[in-house]
Amino acid sequence: MIVWMLSPDPRTVTSLETFLARSFAASLLLVAFLNLLFSGELQAIFAEAGAADVNSPYASPTLYATLIYNTASCIMLYTYSYSHSLSSSWLTIGSVLHLILASSGLLLIMFGQGPGHISKRTGADKRTSGFPFKNAESDRKKR
Question: Looking at the DSSP assignment, which residues form a beta bridge with residue 118?
Fold first, then answer.
């Protein structure tokens, strides 16, 4: 199939190449399902209202793996979309979609992990990591 894509001569796709493309598409759907399963999203969807706080032990590694995959796919599609032989608007759209998924994964890594701390007095969520933004005023010792 790669030889067919790189060849300047037009030719038809064989049944083996069609089979391989369909099996790779099915395996990509399986990987997407396994990402949903291991991240704990399927358990949270089907859990009862009282037990909606389900944590999966594979959530963090799945998040890192999908972040790396979406970042690599974004870079690959971006470079392919601007080459003269493979230029297509669909590749640019795919690159933008993978960029959105990768940036949402990066936001989840930065802000969405770790246990929350709920104030007993006010009931407000006190999750402040200070990772990308430094709060120098709160770091000073109160006198």
Answer: 125
Cβ contacts of 71 within 8 Å, gap of 6 or more: 98, 102
pLDDT band, residue 143 (cuts 50/70/90):
very low
Mean pLDDT confidence for 39-64: 71
Q: List, in order, residues 6 or more apart from 47 with CB less than 8 Å away.
A: 54
| CA separation for the pair 78, 93 (Å, rounded) | 9
Q: Greatest CA span in the chain, whole angstroms?
A: 79
What single-letter amino acid sits at 11? R
Residue closest to 77 by CA, chosen among 100, 105, 103, 99? 99
pLDDT at residue 73 in the model: 87
Contacts of residue 64, defined as CB under 8 A and 6 or more positions apart, other chains included, come to 109
Given a contact cutoff of 8 angstroms between Cβ atoms, the answer to whether 11 and 24 are in contact is no
